[in-house]
Amino acid sequence: MKLALIGFGVVGQGLAEILRDKADDLHQSYDFAPQIVAVVTQRRGSLYCLDGLRIDDLLSAMTKGHLDHYPDAAGLIRDWDALRIIRESNADVMVESTHSNFETAQPALDYCRAAFDSGKHVVLANKGPVALAYSELVTLADSAGKKLFFEATVMAGTPSIRLAMDALSGCQITEARGILNGTTNYILMQMENGMPYGEALAQAQSLGYAEADPAGDVDGWDAAGKALILANAVFGTPLTLSQMTVKGISNLTQADIETARHAGERWKLIAHVTPEGGSVQPTRLPVTDPLANVSGANNAITYKTDLLGRVTLIGAGAGRLPTGFGLLSDLLNIHRLA
Ligand code: HSE
């Protein structure tokens, strides 16, 4: 399987690191030997080599600040743009992990269109296209006879999407409620430990949890985008951001957190989705609620089902390897189905 990585930040590099470190295991256990043939960054160059790129050299070039530091090699092409690589490279799969845009989903949406148009599978960590154009993407994937997977978009590699769309097939899911943003959950935990808001946010950024613009996290838009993905993909409801109530955590003070603590409660940023609509807002939960005990950058989701009752999944919600794993799980799925 040949991969074109569009976006090579925390998440794309996380996937590359996993593919390098688990190469033997992936080959032996799953007969899976993927090869990165192209990498595109927004400001740090791009590379394409139809025979494959060396992961160590890719990661070390990024450590030095630019893909120009990748050693010259026969057949190496530098600086093709994303659309040219998607259309003209020999990749089988486009893996898209550029920044999520919840206003237009661009440029990633055009990348997805070009990928299906040129016969490639699409695997997304980018939330924008799934949140804003899910039904179009499904139609394009179906007509191209290619796969569209996006496990990494909600709860990183913790399989919230596959749980709902695969493992729970046959159940009717009537509600999803959870903690879908790692950055804000991390900040709230650190504020409970007495750390000032700004310092906790800076830590979440340096740990690779936050979006490029962390306002998307703290103002609730990232969790809302994930709620849209659940609404569209799990419930088949074409919900939009303007139809949702969205509130973030930036107005929560240390005093609010203390008041809740004295009442035996904790603030959590809770996303709630039903077939009728969705919301994201800070909510005070009793410490006996399982969601109140989801700590750090972990996320959780409870699906309410007709046959199993409530099913809760808790796990990593952000970060380099957890999100890189979400992409890997989709690639393995394509490998199994191909
Ligand atoms: N910024 C996101 C979060 C990354 O903190 O949850 C994972 O989508």
Topology:
Elements: E1 2-6, H1 10-21, H2 23-30, E2 35-40, E3 46-48, H3 55-63, E4 77-78, H4 82-88, E5 93-96, H5 108-117, E6 121-124, H6 127-144, E7 148-149, H7 160-167, E8 173-179, H8 182-192, H9 197-206, H10 215-218, H11 221-234, E9 245-246, H12 254-262, E10 265-274, E11 277-286, E12 298-305, E13 309-316, H13 320-337
Parallel strand pairs: 1-2, 1-5, 5-6, 6-7, 9-11
Antiparallel strand pairs: 2-3, 3-4, 8-10, 8-12, 10-11, 12-13
The structure holds L-homoserine (HSE).
L-homoserine binds next to helix 8.
In short:
The chain is of the alpha/beta class.
Helices and strands: which structural class?
A: alpha/beta
Shape call: globular
Helix % is 40-55%
Distance between the termini: 10 Å
Residue-averaged pLDDT: 97
Q: Largest sheet, if any?
A: 7 strands, mixed
Main sheet: strand order: 4-3-2-1-5-6-7
Could you explain the architecture of this structure?
- The chain has 338 residues and is α/β, with parallel strands linked by helices.
- It has 13 helices and 13 strands.
- A seven-stranded mixed beta sheet has the order 4-3-2-1-5-6-7, sandwiched between helices. A six-stranded mixed beta sheet has the order 9-11-10-8-12-13.
- It is globular.
- Residues 156, 181-183, 209-211, 217, 222, 317-318 line the site of L-homoserine.
